[in-house]
Amino acid sequence: MRQAAGFTLLEILIAVFVLALGLIGGTAMQLHAMRTRHESALLSSAVRVASSLADRMRANAAQLPAYLAIDYDAHAEPSPAPPANLCLATPCDAAGLASLDAYELKRQVRATFPAGRARVCRDAQMWAGGSLRWDCSGEPSAPVVVKVGWRGKRPDGTPDTDAAGSYAPGVAIAVGAAP
């Protein structure tokens, strides 16, 4: 009797199943890597935007009250209104420069982050429950903080909110101790 050479149908089905599992695993890993890269890029941009405003605030420290009034939510206020003077044709005073800085921050947050938000406030307790929070303590002796964030999503596509249903800031940069 002659022995048949080759593969059986069962062996082929098992090989195709193992190959499919490998492809699904590789695809899931690639999607996770892309999501992580995007989140990293957003965090890097948030640090850049917040640090830039912090430097501008240090350079124009006399206008601190104008900066402390910044609380911009691109989801609620889609297009920020430009200041009366953009400091191009005519020079700006310190108040005009603070107004321009606030406008530039809002414009950057709007352009860079998905439904982004930026807030400048005095806050001694930026963290609550292991994550940053938008609320500010407002104590006069608290350091000035620049907070930047966006409406993120979890890997399954659901909104990345805390237990209270709000989005946490991605970055909080302390400008310095209270004057």
UniProtKB/TrEMBL annotation:
> Which keywords does this Swiss-Prot/TrEMBL entry list?
Membrane, Transmembrane, Transmembrane helix
Q: Which residues form the Type IV pilin Tt1218-like domain?
A: 28-102
What name does the UniProt record give this protein? Answer: Type IV pilus assembly protein PilV
List the taxonomic lineage: Bacteria, Pseudomonadati, Pseudomonadota, Betaproteobacteria, Burkholderiales
Listed transmembrane segments? 6-28
- Give the organism the record lists: Pseudoduganella lurida
